[in-house]
Structure formats: C-alpha cells, structure tokens
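**Tokenised fold:**
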Amino acid sequence: MAGILDGKGIAAKIKEELKEEIQQWKDRGIQPCLAVILAGEDPASVYYAKAKQKVCESLGMTYRFINLPGDVGEEDILGKINELNGDKTVHGIMVELPLPKHIDTKKVTAAILPEKDVDGVHPMNRGAIMSGDEGLFPATPQSCIELLLRSGVEIEGKHVVIVGRGETVGKPLVFMILKHHATVSICHSRTRDLSSFTRQGDIVIAAVGKPKLIKADMVKPGAVVVDAGINETNEGMCGDVDYEGVKEIAGLISPVPGGVGSLTTTLLLKNVLKGLAIQLKK
C-alpha cells in the first residue's frame, strides 16, 4: 500500500516559516498585506475568500477584502485594481474567479501589477515561467512540486507524466517541473491510449478535472501519484485519481482532500512575500 503525500502536514510547516518571515518584515516596519477582490456572492468564491482571511489572520498578515456587487461594471473593477496597484501598503492582489459573465477576465487579471499578481496569471508572470526569469507563479502547480520535494521525492531525471493541459495547472506545471530537470510528457483529452503514457511515469500528476480518471491499471507499481484534481460528485468530493484502487499500486500518493489543495492558500501567501521583496527592489 502506498505512503501518503501529506499536504496538511507540509502546509503546517510552511505556515510556521511564513509566520517567522512575516514577523521579520514587521520588525522592519512593513506590514505584509493581501487584497482580495470578489464580484458577486458566488458561494464557492465566498468560501475561498474567507479561508484566505483565516490563514492570513493566523499568520499575522493583513487581509483586505473588497466585495463588489455582481452587476459591477468592468471599469469599476479596473479602477479598484488600479487603486490597489498604487497603494504601497498592499503587496498582493487577487481576483476571485469566476467573474460575472459581463466582465472580461483576461483584461481584469492583466491589469494587476505583475509583482502584485499573487495568482500568477499576468502575461508577464506566465512568460517568466517559460523563460526562467523571476516572477510570481500559480499556487497549484507550486503545490504539486512542493509536495514532492518536501516529501523527499527526487524529480531530477524522472519521467513525469502530467495529465491535463489547463491554463491553471497543466500548462504552467510543464515548465515549472522542467526546471527540476525532469523528463516531461503532457497528456490531455485527445491523447490516444492514455494509459500507455501514464504507465511509463515515475511520477504521474493528474490535473484534468475528471473524477477518478486514473485507475490502478494505468499506474506502474511504485510510481508517485499526485492528484491535483478536485471534483464534486453525488458521492462527495474526489480527485482525478481512483484513490482506493491506485493506493494499492503506487509507492506514494496524495489524497483528496488533504493533498495538493492543502498547500495552495499557504503558497499564495508565500507569493505575497515574494512579491513584496520584488517591489522593494524597484
């Protein structure tokens, strides 16, 4: 039976590191601050916004929540972002997605200063992922990598098979994990004979958004399996991996919940501090 990639335990360790770093900034007279913009009352978005507030408060980081009405105009959101961009007491800005349908999401996210873009969605940060330059990168791909590294999994030289090519996880993860000198295969919905690829993986990362897609016969014995999926089903929440089946084959596996998702908010706040350091260099 596979060992567990313990996202909760790793998140707790990173939080202690962040708490210490935040205190160091405070000792220098700087109060780290994250601002989150939410348009409307989408239940999931409200939940995630409150979860971020809870973590911020526990670590000593200021949390500024801007809740705009669902019928807010695009120019009003852009104006608020411009205001936060110019506010030197705000070091990270995030817009909760999805935005209302009448709002151009790409236009809004591109309006955030790259050094305050803690979600790593600005085109300049996306470009930095590919070029290897300094920047802020998306939290979920970072979570996958942190989960591996802090669990003692060697990435260099390993064959990593990523299932999913989405903008949030799959695409950025390809370039982020290449920096660790892995050999990478990327699979997606049009990949023929998917299992012939996944069975080759020393490390398999599932980020496709299909409940229990990765079955036991799709994983080679002893492989490390990271489940970055989160799906609501009639049976409750599950990942993209058939956990009960695959855990009998894999060497290490991340659960859902308790795996990748446990790290994302923590690493988002780590981006606030990284962005703060970049801002002070300018």
About this structure: The two ends are 51 Å apart (CA to CA). The chain is about 40% helix and 15% strand. Residues 7-27 form the longest helix (21 residues). The mean pLDDT is 96.
